Amino acid sequence: MLALYSRENRFLFVYLLLATGLLTGLTSWVLCRNHSFRTENVGYLSDKLRRQQQLFEEQKNYLPLLDSAHHTVVAYRPEVTAVFVEADIDNQLNDIRRLYVRRVYSTNAADDTVRFFRAFDQAANFYQMLYRDKKILATRQANVRLLAGQLAECKIDFQAKAPAGASAPVVAPAAAVPLAAPPAATPR
To answer: Is residue 86 part of a domain?
Structure first.
């Protein structure tokens, strides 16, 4: 009895496998019988792939410029006054931006090669934002340190001007404010 059950399972499996293969073959024949792959599509796709490969290679040549600009901006310390470092950062960011601008004006706007270099413009804008934020943060931190020093000096001067035996003036607390309104007078 058990052998018959196993034989039926094998027969059902082979039957379902053949039915699936036949159905897949029939469906693919119906869908693809009238579609031929044109040779001009092959030429267009191979040209497009070749052009994209050339653009990737060209982008790879400019990656060291991006890396050096990033390292320069990250290593920049606004506390140290170095005009040549700031000028170097500005020049590097302008060089990166020029890669995109040169592409925009040298080719027609409909060409897809422009979008390959849009990332360089976006990276330059990001590095410029990072550079400005570092400068603003350093200025604000310097202002906070200056104000904290002035506050400490003001406290010292206030304590120094107070009479020797007198303590700081004590202000009496304000009178308590009633929480409820007083009862209204009843007419007689």
So the answer is: yes
Domain enclosing residue 95, as ranges: 46-135
Pinpoint the alpha helices (H) of 107-117: 113-116
* 139 phi and psi angles, rounded to 5 deg: -65, -45
Residue 41 lies in a domain: no
Pure H helices in the chain: 2-32, 39-75, 83-106, 113-116, 118-161
Which pLDDT belongs to residue 29?
Answer: 85
Task: Spell out the residues 6+ positions from residue 162 whose beta carbon is closer than 8 angstroms to its own.
Answer: 168
pLDDT of residue 56: 87
Chunked into runs of 10 residues, the chain (188 residues) has average pLDDT values of 72 93 91 70 84 87 91 88 88 90 69 77 93 92 91 77 58 54 57
| 112 domain residue, yes or no | yes
Residue 122: inside a domain, yes or no?
Answer: yes
**For residues 75 and 88, what is the distance between their CA atoms, to the nearest angstrom?**
12
The DSSP letter of residue 77 is -
How far does Cα 135 stand from its chain's mean position?
20
Give per-residue pLDDT as tens, 171-180. Answer: 555 555 555 5
Number of domains in the chain: 1
